[in-house]
Backbone:
């Protein structure tokens, strides 16, 4: 008799047949006696179809109207899923973001949820009905339709689970859980039964695309147990919760990596206070996000070398800006490299175990992988290496940390 | 400086290019200084696409959810049109039926408008913005999305015009006005500059498909001047208003006809009180609408002959029912004919002119057209004739009443 919130993404509801399959999954939970709230995305392809229509009208769609347009995608899905549930004899009712009062701020295209009115939903659940809610959308104070931006349906699901104090928020997707690393790179990658919010956040920020970082952070903040499962296969998926003393503690949980990195270096900048700000200020002003930052005093003692990474898409723009700044500051040289990748070990076990980083460096050295940059946090060690070493590095580390075996074996 | 409500149907907004063309039309009115509220339908084809999706899920879609589904069609159009207006530099804002509080009853799929909250719209108009409203949809008291049924966008436009006390409600369509008769049957048919609500109602009920009967009746009730124009050509269209003494009075305004008629006759029913009810009760119970009804005493004086017409689609069902009833009542014979048509003269001028009907009968007799049934109302004379005489009859009458010339010439 649990209360669960389930979220099905665009691929899971990509056709009438798949919507019917989702209805059967939902109905099975009802039959077991669970109360179910379902959040759905637009059918896959639908959002692009709508964006194409807008693009045929104008290059710069009004943000408010783009939200009016895009929010129809999920509205179609809630109606179809509720019809499919009705056909199975499962009482259900659909709600748009506005109807269930998902109140957001007024930042169109990337609004943030402020509050949710759970009255309608609670009445429906009490009456035994499945509640079907359009993900990704809400309304602002003045009743304008807003959308939450990419991955917004996950956020909707977590927000509803938090508001309703659900026992679990289940995110159905096209993968069957969170893996120790990407199985396409390391076939021995293993599905994790559990992972902590902090680990999941690090993995998401490192490019693991299973869940949107915002929904994980939201779930962590409101302590909503989050489970990632496959829409297409049976299985328990991966549960994302706070650390639990009874959990068998692994040293590290997984290896994340990010192919979309580029590295920029300024050599021989006169080492005066505020140099970091002078270098990075113009980059930030151009809306370029900077990831890793390293500063070292140069051998001459009077200048400094400064390196940072950006998304590969921003590489040439960042290089242009940096060249200009370097000239102004009288730096010796600017170097760039856009064929690098970042590999990261992630695990809350690091907190209580020394030596993780050195095992990592040793493993990579043995394979002849040259490390270009290093950055660490409490539960993460990241290295930047040449792109060509990605697969080799990930596999070697997966092996060295015995990630193919469950912890304790 | 007039306040006008314009309605553009599905064909007029059938593609991004057409939506852009509508935006230019609307903007031209704004440039002239008019305040404009625009009501739009779903892009042509969109409603059918949505119905196909529903049909792929279930044969019997839940009415509430069908409304949630179908209402997305107009929502897409309002967003796109508002973007197109913005691109032209024309300030505009879109509203769904729910956002502009088009409050309806709760009869899903064919709801009726109860009230409209004009606050948002008036504020926008005062700020110089064009208001773009989704036609065909509303919300009931509990916030459930409702739709008004076929032709509902016309009704929305008229209701908004009434609520805002607009100077004119302009219905843009793929014809350039109301004609004296169907130009495909009589190439000499002439566009009417004006026609009265009553005449328009008769024409609509007789199968003239320019406007939905509900919106005409609504406009008449609230005295909203209605104008039918073409989206694709320039022109003044046809204005539908109350009779105006200054109007050059035509004897008749137009010739309407209906191909979808079928005729059923019972001969020799014992002539007892209540026989009409006994015959038509079972027909009505089967949800078959009866149009013309004629009863005559038979030559023997003790029995009666009874004839009525139904929509051709209901013909065989009605014949089955009538055969059973006739047996019970002891009638002599049941006859049926589903290759008949109805031709009607419509005009408020009939009220003050005798002899219209006899001129009609004379004209048809001259052409050798045999009249099977006759029915009259205050502003209409209808005859039922064999299908094959339709074109001949319409053309002869058009000629006899000089409909190809403006009144007074």
Residues:
């Amino acid at each position: 008799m649990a209360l669960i919130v389930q979220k099905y993404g665009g691929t899971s509801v990509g056709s009438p047949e798949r919507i019917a399959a989702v209805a059967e999954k939902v109905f099975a939970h009802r039959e077991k006696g669970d109360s179910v709230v379902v959040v759905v995305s637009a059918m896959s392809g639908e959002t692009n179809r709508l964006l194409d229509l807008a693009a045929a009208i104008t290059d710069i769609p009004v943000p408010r109207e783009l939200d009016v347009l895009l929010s129809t995608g999920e509205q179609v899905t809630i109606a179809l899923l509720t019809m499919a549930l009705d056909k199975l004899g499962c009482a259900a009712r659909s709600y748009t973001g506005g109807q269930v009062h998902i109140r957001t701020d007024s930042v169109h295209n990337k609004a943030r949820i402020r509050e949710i009115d759970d009255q309608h939903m609670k009445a429906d659940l009490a009456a035994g009905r499945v509640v079907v809610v359009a993900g990704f959308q809400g309304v602002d104070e003045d009743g304008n339709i807003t959308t939450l931006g990419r991955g917004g349906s996950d956020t909707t699901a977590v927000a509803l689970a938090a508001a309703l104090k659900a026992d679990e928020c289940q995110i159905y997707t096209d993968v069957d859980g969170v893996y120790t690393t990407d199985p396409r790179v390391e076939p021995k990658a293993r599905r994790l039964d559990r992972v902590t919010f902090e680990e999941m956040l690090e993995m998401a920020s490192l490019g693991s695309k299973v869940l949107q970082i915002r929904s994980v952070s939201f779930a962590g903040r409101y302590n909503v147990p989050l489970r990632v499962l496959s829409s297409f296969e049976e299985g328990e998926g991966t549960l994302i919760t706070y650390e639990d003393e009874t959990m068998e503690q692994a040293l590290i949980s997984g290896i994340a990596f990010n192919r979309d990195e580029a590295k920029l270096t300024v050599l021989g900048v006169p080492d005066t206070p505020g140099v970091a700000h002078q270098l990075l200020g113009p980059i930030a002003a151009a809306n370029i996000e900077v990831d890793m930052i390293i500063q070292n005093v140069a051998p001459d003692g009077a200048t400094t070398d400064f390196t940072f990474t950006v998304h590969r898409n921003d590489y040439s723009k960042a290089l242009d800006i940096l060249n200009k700044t370097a000239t102004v500051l009288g730096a010796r040289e600017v170097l760039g490299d856009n064929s690098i990748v970042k590999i990261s070990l992630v695990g809350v076990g690091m907190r209580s175990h020394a030596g993780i980083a050195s095992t990592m460096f040793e493993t990579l050295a043995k394979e002849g992988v040259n490390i270009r940059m290093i950055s660490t946090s409490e539960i993460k060690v990241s290295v930047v290496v040449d792109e060509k070493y990605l697969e080799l590095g990930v596999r070697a580390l997966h092996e060295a940390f015995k990630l193919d075996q469950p912890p304790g074996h």
